[in-house]
Amino acid sequence: MQPKFVINGRFLTQPMTGVQRFAMQVAAAIDAMIESGEYAELDGRIEIVAPPGARELPLRHIPVRRCGLGGGYFWEQVELPWFARGRFLLNFCSVGPVITRNQLVVVHDATPRARPKNFAPLFSAVYNFLIPRLVRRSLCTATVSEFSRREIAKWYGVDTSDMRVCYLGADHISRVVPDNSVIERLGLSGRKFFLGVGVSNNKNSETVAAALLRAGLDDTLLVLTGSRVGKVNGRSSEIALNRLCHAGYVSDRELRSLFEHALALVSPSHYEGFGLPPVEGMLLGCPAIISDTPAMIEICGDAALHCAADDVEKLAEFMRIVHDDPARRDALIEAGRARAARYTWDSVARTLLELCSKYSSVRALSPEIWIVSG
Predict the structure, then answer these.
(1) CB-based burial of residue 218 (10 Å sphere; 0-12 exposed, 13-18 middle, 19+ buried)?
(2) What domains can you pick out in the chain, each with its CATH number?
(3) pLDDT tens across 106-161, in order?
């Protein structure tokens, strides 16, 4: 039987950042819903088609098949349309083949246009060329917050009135076993520390470091996770703080341990389409200190402490609160867990499959779905 749907997820050939995690978790959620019987009609009719050299994705009902000759944008723009011809294509990572109309594209945000200095010039140029054309041409589109939907319309001059908001999930982090060896490896045993996830310019780590100095918490460290991808993020700024620990890339198991040991996550981002780390942290009982950017407030609400992204004094005050006031910190933990529980990958997957059904009659036609890594 000819497959009717193709999901593009070139993520299996890319470093693991936010959009790749989105694609991986949506695929895993679909796989779990097949296992549970909710989407049993898709069993045996889903596969991941990836460029050569793609890594494995261990799922029970969705095998990986590698095909094609190229990779990167060439594979996505030239080879993928051939693999997807005659079928409905789903793209989870903001871009897809611009020549294809019969597709869904999940555009995560407008950051390449709104904050171009956060990215390498080539990355911004490619995304700024593709995104408006994909939104205009694709049969349907989705994004991860109401704020992103408005920003895509504003910065790319496109009509987003029919764009569906699917949000993100955070429950993946609660399913991994924490690897507490990271605490010893980084010299954090018995130490108090604040956590920052991500080191791109947008994450505003320099301001976090300045706030920790202003807070006067000499017994407390700042731990930053993540590593920069030069062809995506561009050049970085140096942070001058003698109580700074660069953790580099950490696994999900290590990240869970860091969340569970940190005083709080401090994430005063200048711009976000959703802002996943605060939600992951809150789900695990790590209070969040965030910027008052619209997306962060939309997602976290009053369950997190928030202020202007560059307000060093207020950030320092919030750091002192979670450091010195256990009762206030406990209240933030309770509110954060309740708020974060709203965001599940099952909900995201259902929203996207429902959107597909609107245009392609998923259940009525008993289609096969292909997931094409990209």
Answers:
(1) exposed
(2) 5-168+344-373 (3.40.50.2000), 172-340 (3.40.50.2000)
(3) 999 999 999 998 889 999 999 999 999 999 999 999 999 999 999 999 999 999 99
